[in-house]
Amino acid sequence: MTTLPEKTERKLGLVIDLDTCVGCHACVISCKGWNTENYGSPLADVDAYGENPVGTFLNRVHSYEVTPDEGTSQLVHFPKSCLHCEDAPCVTVCPTGASYKRSEDGIVLVNESDCIGCGLCAWACPYGAREMDGIEKVMKKCTLCVDRIYNENLEPEDQIPSCVRTCPAGARHFGDFNDPDSQVNKLVLERGGMDLMPEQQTKPVNKYLPPRPKDTLGEIDILAPLLKPVAEKPDTFIGWLNKQLDKI
Amino acid sequence: MTDQPYLDTSPQLSDEIRKTTCYMCACRCGINVHIKNDKVAYIEGNKEHPVNQGVLCAKGSAGIMQINAPSKLKSPLKRVGPRGSGQFKEITWNEALNLATSWLKPIREENPEKLAFFTGRDQSQSFTSFWAQNFGTPNYAAHGGFCSVNMAAAGIYTMGGAFWEFGQPDWDHTKLFMLFGVAEDHDSNPIKMGIGKIKAKGARIIGVNPIRTGYSAVADDWVGITPGTDGLFIMSLIHLLLKAGKIDLVYLSQFTNAPALVDNETGLLLKDADNKELVIDQKSGKLVAFDTKNVQPNITANHKGNQTVFYHMIEKYLSDEFSPEAVSERTGIKAGRIRAIAAEIARVAFEESFEIDQEWTDFRGNKHKKMLARPVSFHAMRGISAHSNGFQTCRALHVLQIILGTVEVPGGFRFKPPYPKPSSIHPKPHCKVTPGAPLDGPHLGFVHGPDDLCLKEDGTPARIDKAFTWENPMSAHGLMHMVISNAHAGDPYKIDTLFMYMANMSWNSSMNTKGVIEMLTDKNDSGDYVIPHIIYSDAYSSEMVAYADLILPDTTYLERHDCISLLDRPICEADAVADSIRWPVIAPDRNVRGFQSVLCDLGARLKLPAFIDNDGNARFKDYADYIVNHERKPGIGPLAGWRSKEDTGKGSPNPNQLNQYIKNGGFWTKHIPKNAAYYKPWNLDYQNWAVDTGLYDQPQPYLFSLYVEPMRKFQLAALGHGKIQPPEHLRDRILKSMDPLPIWYPPFEETLVDKDEFTLHALTQRPMAMYHSWGTQNAWLRQIHGVNPLYIPSKLMMSHSLKDGDWVKLTSVNGSITVPVAEMAALNERTVWTWNAIGKRKGTWALDKNAPEATKGFLLNHLIHELLPPKGDGLRWANSDPITGQAAWFDLRVKLEKTKSPSSSEPTFPEIKSPVEKGSNIILQGQS
What's the gap in Å between the CA of A29 and the closest CA on chain B? Predict the structure, then answer.
């Protein structure tokens, strides 16, 4: 059993904009590329060219179809990685202390040298955000690119998680939720940022911005003022045109 | 905090970053390739690069798995078993090139047309076409004919450029963005960046697509249109906007051929002795050339019974056949919805307009104090163009853009240099063959009438693909999808050697895949192959490899030189001209060579004039040497950067040029001055800047062609005018299809099959996270898209008692496939679809034979024929647009029935013997 810090100096996390995410998986692969080279052991791909390829990913995009009672169906792309919860059940369940939440910034990490691969944390996580590595048999999860965000070998604007840096649509934002003036807090306020499954009482740090209302143009009838006919037939139309041209 | 483990939060990233250009799709983003221990460790976007500004898609980041792919070919190969067996022996490069020379040399000396040289998603077309031109064969093209030539040609004939590589929405100012039928890749990162940018500002996005995925999934409004009816929908929008007077009259009168007078008798435009369109000046009432100083062209003039183009448009589009009620059923869009969209377009274009404080001067010499915004933009690609009515549909979309006055104004659509470039200053096609000598000019171009067609003296097609003939006069990109079929049929003639690059023609790049495989392996009565020799270059063990006699293995994109050239399909932005390079950031670890370098060598062995020096020796050591030293015209070469002290874009070759590109991150840009940023076709400052940069020989102001006069010339021929006459069986079709104002007609396939039997449309899309280039297989990406179910709309699932994972037999008039299904609700009710090119053949791509790509993956290609169903006249009618020859992939009609689950998708093909080993079971990328 591992304890959580009472509070953290900073509360780093992501805001993910479900209105803008086009579901391109850029974040998934950029994450894989960075993290297989960096923090901990490589993210293994087993049966890579075979019948059932299974690789370890710290971030995946799921797509859900939403069909309202009335109106057209929608497809929502939903990127999912560790939400770095304030009350992270994956930490408190860990028997060895390998799973821990950093007191300085709230990032939840797995210390691989202490991880025995028991898998309890993955069971405890209500979001399915942890994956057991197929070769090393240690638990893998989003590190919020802890080896990028403080990395002095990177230029300041690159000291952000790899998924945020690569996102072509700009649907991912990184920042400190303890800072009321941070961009992530502003976005949450402006756009009604939401917790994922708040009933689980994990107090996730990452927030999701909901899709804007869709298909609002609806239908309009023949009397639409903007489309009021100026003429019905070519000759009367020419008459209207000539009047307009005189005004120019 | 003390009990937290120590973490190194500043690890060294890599030993070195090498900056080059991505090739995982056609987007051509800048990439930073991190090198550790001389190996590629990590790929990220280049922040300084004009295309992607630091971001990178899934394909780009997965490039590392392309470099490590087990499917990479390792050595030149000579076929030793029968074609299709996959039995090869490794040979040396010298043997390979001698063999190729022994086939090609006699052809060149006797009849160069016996070589058909076609390249796929080739990003070196200005070079490969130059090589083919030097060889002397008329038979060259790249993959445009089976991709999006309708879009490109319609755009160039109408306004001097189309979407994607030709131009882009004004992302900084647009307030309404309407996206038609875009597969999720063209253009990849810039569209996603643009969508993100305009969404952050609250702009509205309307997605018109039978399928609501990708960009349409995030669109504010989705129009789930019935495939092949986009033209009708667009013309209904034009109808409503015209009728309501929601058009930009000043723009139409000043910048388009709306005021040009149409000769009442011929339908041609009235022109002066200098071939300039004539208009009536509003003030003086006089007949003058369109570019006369101070002229105010009158769009409603009537000169001796000759009406303006605009008058003809009104007559056509005010007709009730384009009313929302009239098109609603066919398009599957409610009339009220069509009105709502038209009203929103009108509102944003005219009520949310604004001005930019920027003076500019037009080509008539008039100074303007401001630039007026029409903040509505459009984008479209293959969805609307891959139909037999695609050219006219693409034209209609441009006409819609133009009547709103949204092209080359703030908030609308902007060209990227070297565009705008009207069809009149593009080359015309050339096809004159002289044994032992180069062709008389570039193969591909823009025809302006029957005189420009590629016909032999006896009137038969000069080209193997029948491009630029009466069957498809404006086939600006050729017809790659007809090459094998025509060569096999000996129609219009037989060839000796088929030479292809990066085109998986025995699999996903062909219609009628099974038929094509049979054509490639078919033998004549004397036991010889009907297509005698096949040479193929690819970097990977693709399905096509087994069908070639000689394999020239290419490098991957990180092991080679390339130039993304202004002579070809450059990477420019609306505010800057730009080009870029690839360079070998790693060295190949096997016996492969960049294909373009191989062509330099082969060109010298064949003594092609441009490839040898005065002593008859090889002129270019390799492709890099060509890139730096070749001059197309004095001062103009493949790369525009660092050619002179002032760096204008022109100048003599600079031996240090590639190093300067490398130092600058692999690219070069030159910015357009602010007063030249908009109104480019009519803006004097832009025109002069383009001349200084080497894009034009002289200023080229021109009018947008709402009315495309060259089309009328083909109609006149069909009516019996002129010396060059179409064959009788094509007269009627030419007259009907070549209307100089956009029209809509039903896609051909549905007019030839029983629509009550084949009630459904079937489409493919290319996923954002999969290929549009070379390697269609990737260890990371296959974990995202390893299978491709047939997506079926919910109502159909119910009526056929289907659930996810069930199998159906999907049948077209050409055959059947048996495939797994999945339900999708956000889908046009008459449409089924799947992802393109996920299915793989057993024995290819170094995959296990039980890989899901080979057992559950499938191609829709089997159901699509390169020919239309026979009409009983004994003729071979291409399944293509009758104007451009664009492959009509999306005209496909199908029916489906539930079936028992087979052991794998059908049809099945025998496993091919692989020239490479199967990939290793475990990948631990990054293990030190």
Answer: 5
Residue B318 near residue A232, CB atoms below 8 Å: yes
pLDDT under 50: residue ranges of chain B = 1
**Cβ separation of A153 and B824 shorter than 8 Å?**
no
Token pair listed for B709? 């006069």
Nearest neighbour of A217 by CB, restricted to B44, B246, B341: B341
- Looking at the partner chain, which of A50, A73, A153 has a beta carbon nearest the beta carbon of B825? A73
A9 touching chain B per CB within 8 A:
no
Q: Which helix (H) or strand (E) holds B486?
A: helix B480-489
The size of the A-B interface in CB pairs under 8 A is 315
Which of chain B's residues have a Cβ under 8 Å away from the Cβ of A38? Answer: 11, 926
* Contact indicator for B551, B536 with CB cutoff of 8 Å: yes
In this structure, chain A runs to a length of 248
pLDDT reading at A1 higher than 70:
no
Domain annotation covers residue A127: yes
Structural domain tally of chain A? 1
Rounded alpha-carbon distances, angstroms, from residue B283 to B287, B288, B521, B616: 11, 12, 70, 66
- Tell me the nearest-neighbour CA distance from A167 into chain B, angstroms: 6
Alpha-carbon distances, residue A7 vs A130, A178, A205, B373 (angstroms): 23, 10, 13, 52
Q: Do B300 and A152 touch (CB under 8 A)?
A: no
* Residue A3 belongs to a domain: no
Locus of tokens 């179409």:
B726
Q: Among B193, B772, B780, B831, pick the best mutation site for testing chain A contact (most A Cβ within 10 A).
A: B780
CATH 2.40.40.20 range(s) for chain B read: 748-899
Name the residue type at position B856: K
3-state secondary structure of B315: helix
What CA–CA distance (Å, rounded) separates B669 from B574? Answer: 12
Q: How far apart are CA A65 and CA B502, in angstroms?
A: 36
Which residues in chain B are closer than 8 Å to A74, comparing Cβ atoms?
Answer: 212, 217, 222, 826
The Cα–Cα gap between A105 and B577 comes to 44
Q: Give the residue from A24, A149, A245 with the most B CB atoms within 10 Å of its CB, the best one to mutate.
A: A24
A130 falls within a domain: yes
How far is it, in rounded angstroms, from Cα B516 to Cα B480?
13
Chain A 163-222, residues with CB within 8 Å of chain B CB atoms? 165-171, 211-212, 214-222
Backbone angles phi and psi of B147, in degrees to 5: -115, -90
B271–chain A Cβ distance below 8 A for any pair: no
Q: Which residues contact B489 (CB under 8 A, 6 or more apart)?
A: B876
Chain B residue whose CA is closest to A239: B300
Degrees, nearest 5: CA angle B227-B233-B234: 115
Which residue is closest to A221 within chain B, CA to CA? Answer: B336
> A120: domain range?
12-209
Q: What is the pLDDT of residues B606-636, one digit of tens each?
A: 999 999 999 999 999 999 999 999 999 999 9
Question: Most distant CA pair in chain B: distance in Å?
Answer: 95
| Pairwise CA distance, residues B784 & B769, whole Å | 8
User: ipTM of the predicted structure?
Assistant: 0.96
Are B369 and B125 in contact, with CB atoms under 8 Å apart?
no
List residues bridging with B896 in a β-sheet: B810
Q: Which residues pair with B790 in a beta bridge?
A: B821
Residue A242 domain-assigned (yes or no)? no
Helix axes B230-243, B309-317, angle to 10 degrees: 110
Task: Find, in chain A, the residue whose alpha carbon is nearest to that of B300.
Answer: A238
Residues of A in contact with B195 (CB under 8 A): 20, 22, 169
Fold of the domain spanning B748-899: Barwin-like endoglucanases (2.40.40)
CB of B237 less than 8 A from some CB of A: no
Per DSSP, B756 falls in state T
| Size of chain B in residues | 928
